[in-house]
Amino acid sequence: MPELPDVEGFRRVLSDHAVGRKIRRVDVLDPGVLRGVGVGTLQQVLVGRRFGQPWRHGKHLVVPVAGSDSAVLLHFGMTGALHWACDRHRHDRVVFTFSNGELAYRDMRKLHGLRLANGADDVRRVVAGLGPDAAELSRAGLRDQLAGLRRQVKPALVDQAVVAGLGNLLADEILWRAYIHPRRSCADLDTDDFARLHTRMRNVLRQAVSQGRVPPRTTWLTGRRDEKPGSCPRCGTTLNHGRVGGRGTAWCPRCQPE
DNA sequence: GTGAATGTTCATTC
DNA sequence: GGAATGAACATTCA
Question: Last residue of some domain: A88, A110, A128?
Fold first, then answer.
């Protein structure tokens, strides 16, 4: 689930409820999600302190710890989420308790997790390997990242080192809207292709970010692909399904010619 | 039992 | 060196 819009939603959850509140407790229900930090250290650094304003780059969420140079780094893998003031769930892995409620880091598959950065350099290293954030990317910026790459366009879009924040579903959604076949080479894209790609990307992100998720609407490709095969929301043609860059991919054979 | 699932990383092979 | 592929991580679901 978590792509850029979802992580932006988690950022808002944190920002709306938890920022500035004193952290009363940190309960690690499953140490399996802690990466490179132990339970004791995490509690020592956090309990009694407050979170500062969280920020996001791509799918990474950085949560500064006020009054220290540490920061909690969150990545949600494929099944992670932040929930506020919820009933305990079996996949809650870490729970932060504040005076006004609880914040749970919930993750079924535990593919990623929670790290602790010590100092600004540590934080910088997180972002260092990532491309520009998809939501901030200008048209020229997008072209700069993709133009001339001898790769298929979909694998390039989901490569976090090229553009940060797009995942499997969003990439398919954007390509479908831009009338570009996922297997086309970046090197083949012309000025019009880049223009459409950028416009559609911004549009999809704006709508998805406002909802904090990729909307399940049936006017979106994302809302139809699970019907297997499902039909194109625009022209009604039966969708194609295949593997591109090793990932399950859906596209409309009519709107997105090879 | 099998395969696939919205993510990332590492090894291998062309 | 780049790019594509497959496996690995842990867990659930069809």
Answer: A128
Residue A42: strand, helix, or coil? helix
Give the whole-angstrom CA distance, residue A200 versus residue A206: 10
Output the distance from A185 CA to C11 C1' rounded to whole Å. Answer: 35
pLDDT in tens, A114-124: 999 998 888 88
Nearest protein residue, CA measured to C1' of C8: A111
Residue A44 lies in a domain: yes
Q: Are residues A168 and A224 located together in one domain of the fold? A: yes
| Model pLDDT for residues A28-49, shown as the tens digit of each residue | 999 889 998 999 999 999 999 9
List the A227 CA – B6 C1' distance (angstroms): 16
Rg (alpha carbons) of chain A, rounded to whole number: 20
Q: Are residues A116 and A162 in the same domain?
A: no
Distance A148 CA to C9 C1' (A): 33
Residue A109: predicted pLDDT: 85
**Nearest nucleotide to A3, CA against C1' atoms:** B6
A10 and A122 part of one domain:
yes
Asked whether residue A14 falls in the same domain as residue A114, the answer is yes
Count CB-CB contacts under 10 A for residue A183: 17
* Active site (catalytic) residues of A: 2-3, 59, 247
Domain count, chain A: 2
Question: Which nucleotide is closest to the Cα of A32 by its C1'?
Answer: C10
Q: Which domain holds residue A20?
A: 4-128
Within residues 109-138 of protein chain A, the ones with CB less than 7 A from nucleic strand C are 109-111
How many whole angstroms separate alpha carbon A5 and alpha carbon A212?
5
Q: What are the phi and psi torsion angles at A91 (to 5°)?
A: -100, 10
